[in-house]
Amino acid sequence: MSVYVRRAWMVVWKDVLAERRSKESLNALVFFSLLLLFVFQFALGPERARVEAALPGLLWLGFILSGLLAFGRAFLIERENDCWEGLVLTPGDKSAIYLGKLAGNVLVMIVVEVVLLVLFAVFFAIDFTPFLLGLAAVLALGTLGLASVGTLFGAVTAQMRARELLFPVLLLPAVVPVLLASVSATQTVLAGEPLAEAAAWLKLLAAADLVYLVVGVLTFEFVLEG
Amino acid sequence: MVQAEHLRKTYGRTAVLDDVSLDLGAGEGLTLLGPNGTGKTTLLRIVATLLRPTSGLLRVAGADAVKEPEAVRGAIDMVGHGSWVYEDLTALENLRFWAVMGGHDAGEARLRAALEEVELDASADQRARTFSAGMKRRLALARVLLGRARLLLLDEPFTGLDRAGRKWLGEFLLSFKARGGALVVATHSFDAGVGVADRVAILAGGRIVLDRPAADLGLEDLRRVYDELAMGPGTAS
């Protein structure tokens, strides 16, 4: 394993281990998801047609709101005991740290997305099983896009005093293309149409992911150095 | 090891450091004394490449610290106010993380040997959250042992340590120096700080107002000079 990959892996290992033991983020996110579902159900009522029409948007609203909590917290662990300084002084390519943090955020988002899908299935009596494959493809691309930008802006705002305010202000406009493409592709999948029907949206998602990922890798060192 | 010429650091119109020059050789220990807010931490952070000076020249381990920070970072280590300890990881896991990130040997035998050297081997598998400040300081020093640092920068390393802890840390720093490492220690603790120093410098108002061999000054002399230079005339006790 190259030194670069080992460093990225070490960041994921450290974050997952710390989260598994503290459960700070996951507990909050699961509770938040539950709360969100109560609100959605109260707002939409029992009418099935309304739920089905709003479902793609609601799903991604849940994901992005959970993401706002998760990504914003990802770098707070580095502020404790000045670990951030240690990362700055680490020799070598700092983008390994970005990729490690990104992988950790994607893992957290996958857990949250699974929880949210299960809650949607239970609360609204929706059977996702016929759409799982297509949904997984859209979720994978959409999550990578959200997490790429979220990880970068999480690092940008981690050292700021008004980070809770600035983080969503920076993140939400930047992820508009990902959200639009994800919601549209999810709509196609949940309508039972073949994934090829959403090819244009999926291509846009893939392109956005690539751009965000490259920008994150190239700029992270400057962000870390402040 | 460190050559600083006319370093200046300003934030807006406020000069935190002004015309600071230093020359520190390999195996040499420098203790920086000074009241709060005189720029000790800023100077350490500039030498560590965590901050850029506004003007002046700085070479650390033969490299230009402003133009080639990566070259400097391979030769230094730092124990600052924070100890770079992740609270939810054990001592061993913390060391493994920093060993891999620093590109050092992260084998378990090596990590346990470093913990043994700082007398933390019995707590290797305990989470750092349960550690005292002194234990976290030792864990940070175990991290230093894993690397190949030729210059160690320490910011208030004696704060929060009991007598035994101070004595242990003093001996640790002397052994680091004996292996050829250079030290810069910023501290308020006169006796412990001077005990590991070959030279003592006093910072006041962002300037070095005294830089002398430690052997030239007794502890009482130093206190008197410190009071006069750093606290203002008429404050000597």
Assembly form of the protein:
heterodimer
Number of domains of chain A: 1
Computed CA radius of gyration of chain B, to the nearest angstrom: 18 Å
Largest interface: A-B, 23 and 29 residues
Structural class of chain A: mainly alpha
Major β-sheet annotation of chain A: none
Number of helices of chain A: 10
Low-confidence segments of chain B, ≥5 residues, pLDDT <50? none
* Helical content class of chain A: over 70%
Characterise this structure.
The complex is a heterodimer of chains A (226) and B (237). Chain A has one domain (3-225). The longest helix of chain A has 30 residues, at 95-124. Chain A has 10 helices and no strands. Helices cover 84% and strands 0% of the residues of chain A. Chain A has 226 residues and is mainly α. By secondary structure, chain B is α/β, with parallel strands linked by helices. In chain B, 35% of the residues lie in helices and 26% in strands. Chain B has helices at residues 40-47, 69-73, 91-101, 108-117, 133-146, 163-178, 190-195, 219-230, and strands at 2-11, 14-24, 29-33, 55-60, 63-64, 76-79, 151-155, 182-187, 199-204, 207-213. In chain B, strands 6-7-8-3-9-10 form a 6-stranded mixed beta sheet, with helices on both faces. A 4-stranded antiparallel beta sheet of chain B has the order 2-1-4-5. The N and C termini of chain B lie far apart (36 Å). The model of chain B has no long low-confidence stretch (mean pLDDT 88). The interface between A and B is medium-sized, with 23 and 29 residues.
Task: For this entry, give a set of tags.
heterodimer, A: 226 residues, mainly alpha, 10 helices, B: 237 residues, alpha/beta, 6-stranded mixed β-sheet, 4-stranded antiparallel β-sheet, 8 helices, globular
